[in-house]
């Protein structure tokens, strides 16, 4: 599962919001599909640029991710590497394209989850939002509370030369 961080959480939320607002969505287009829309947020590339990079590569997102090689120099591999720098894993990208991560799906009520389609704008929005919430919860659980940061178990000694 992705490494929880604010950059990724915000990108997931922006992607969901843009899809809710009617941004281009076409599951069969490498730049405006599930991964393509998130890639736009994480890389600041346009859907046309992402699609062009993908067409120079090897197949759909799943195939491109399976054959990902950060040393290849191929534009799509560089794009995927940039997405990975923001906390994603290649498995996350494969799951995103099919809306198939069990941990994310567990956060969606079963009556909705059972009817979800990987190429439905509304289902992608729900998946992205649920994922962002899950990562945010993980981030908050991992962060020490302010109270614990301010509470000292024993005093910190001050060196005598500082007091002089």
From TrEMBL:
Q: What is this protein called?
A: Uncharacterized protein
